Amino acid sequence: MGLFHRFQTGKPDITAMQGRKDVSALIDTLQHPDYDVQWKAAAALGTLGKDALHQLHVNLGHPSLEVRLGAIEALGDIRDFSSTEPLSDVLEQDPVSEVRWAAAATIGEIGDPRAIRHLIKALRDPDRFVRYGAATALGQLRWQPKDPKDRAYARIGLQDWDAVGAMGQDAVEPLTSLIHDPDGEVRMRIIETLGRIGGTNSARACTTQLRDPDGAVRWNAVLSGLRCGVQPMAIPMAIARRPRVRKNPLYAAWLNFIMPGYGYTYVGKWWGFTFWQTFLLATLILVLFEGQIMRYIFWQPVPIFVFSPLWVVFALHAYILARRLPEM
User: Fold this and answer.
1) CATH code of the domain made up of 162-240
2) What is the pLDDT of residues 139-175, one digit of tens each?
3) Rounded Cα distance, 188 and 205, in Å
4) DSSP string computed for 141-201
């Protein structure tokens, strides 16, 4: 019976699947649209122990995100050392950060020291949550870093910025290697920490972040740069070389011309969508009042009043608003 037919009759009988040890059916159920059903299926798989291990390992590479996460959760309940290598492969290769994070957490639950080298590598992961999962798992394995850089990476993973700052120059290289984290808050914390540490290497990283697209990060780079000894006159020059990001006035005008109100929404006006709805309602009332609705539907797909001077005014207004917005 296919997955579609299983779900047609409502919630599947997970208890029955568990009783007959139907691992395949339970893995299929991990794709059920109801999250509660997914969770119960993963929990049921976790009770099957070694009988489910092979299929769970195979499905760590399943195309479905839900199946991969459910399989990892079940392996965390089984806690068999044979899962260490398959989960380590997921930790290093899966493209989805939540899956890598779950793999790191499950490795910590299993407690196999063979995974330590994989977790140390994951401390360099570009995603903050994966780094946190790896650092937490290493703590569960009672790992004691011998290399100061590894210790710094672990503290960064745990977001323990005070401890990272207290490490001084040993933390500079790990911090600068993660300076381009996609999360602006993390970049800001890194810059603040480098500012507390100071030194030539920290100053170089702070100068780089003066060109950060996030204004808050740039401001922290200014403050940290001054503490690191960056020359005050060099700061404006570095900021001036940042990528310029602003709303496109021509795009705002075009949106407001073809869909009055959408141009306002594009430039950040909260009432833009309300304007669009009001326009639609007014148009409908006008057409009905004039008794021309059939003509508009069958003979004039684009009403002639779209090109009236009023729409040009709306477009021009959106253009001016976009031009006045500050660069980010």
Assistant:
1) 1.25.10
2) 999 999 999 999 999 999 999 999 999 999 899 999 9
3) 12
4) TT---SSHHHHHHHHHHTT-HHHHHHTGGGGHHHHHHTTT-S-HHHHHHHHHHHHHH-SHH
Domain boundaries, the chain: 3-157, 162-240, 249-324
Q: How far is the CA of 46 from the CAs of 160, 181, 238, 292, in angstroms?
A: 33, 35, 55, 65
Tokens of 144: 């004691």
Predicted confidence (pLDDT) per residue in 86-120, tens digit = 999 999 999 999 999 999 999 999 999 999 999 99
Closest residue by Cα to residue 318 from 270, 271, 279, 262:
262
Q: Taking a C-beta distance cutoff of 8 angstroms, is the pair 97, 133 a contact?
A: no
Contact assessment for residue 107 and residue 78, using Cβ atoms and an 8 Å cutoff: no
pTM of the model: 0.71
Could you tell me which CATH class the domain 3-157 is placed in?
Answer: mainly alpha
What is the secondary structure of 251-304 as a DSSP string? HHHHHHHHSTTHHHHHTT-TTHHHHHHHHHHHHHHHHHHHT-HHHHHHT-SS-G
At 247, list the tokens. Answer: 């709303």
Q: Are 181 and 207 in contact (CB under 8 A)?
A: no
What's the CA gap between 293 and 112, in Å, rounded?
72
